[in-house]
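Subject: Protein entry, chain in single-letter code together with its fold tokens

Area: Proteins and the way their chains fold up in space.

Attached in line: The record itself begins immediately under this heading.
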Amino acid sequence: MLDQNIQLAKTKMEQTIVFVGSELGKIRTGRANPDMFNKINVKYYDNDTPLNQIANISVMDAITISIQPFDKTAIDDIERGILESDLGLNPSNNGNSIMITFPPLSAERRQDLVKVASKIIEDGRISVRNIRREIIQSTKKIEEDEKIPEDDMKRFMDQMQDVTDSFIKRLNSNQEAKEKEILDN
């Protein structure tokens, strides 16, 4: 029973790590990355539609992305969606596709991106700690009902803390890697 709760915590914490990784992938680092367009919605036939559902997004080289709409009539809507996003990009529309060239990041913009990454990581840490708290609370309720021995409960608490610490450590290393990526490009 206690082992099941440890496994449940690990599963939920792993989901947090995956989510944080996907959010970090959306942060612009000076290199062309199609994942950063996943959060852009485009007004397409009066519906907010994710950009990646109405266009093919491909990396041309380290600093250029090409966006090929499936429907050429949507090209102006796609361009408007990119301009209205918080990415700070200037798309170039040639009538058939949109080209985006990533300018080098300024030192000030790099610091802003480091802050954004830090916030994402901190939210991940909070999520991991909340998972630990939820699992411990549910286990304590079971302990009262089923009279789990105190030694087993102490061992469980130690294991939960070890699991939590290992996931926090992974988040910290993700943060260091992302900061290095932002500042070194």
Q: What stands out?
A: The chain has a mean pLDDT of 88. The helical segments are 2-25, 51-54, 75-84, 107-146, 150-184.
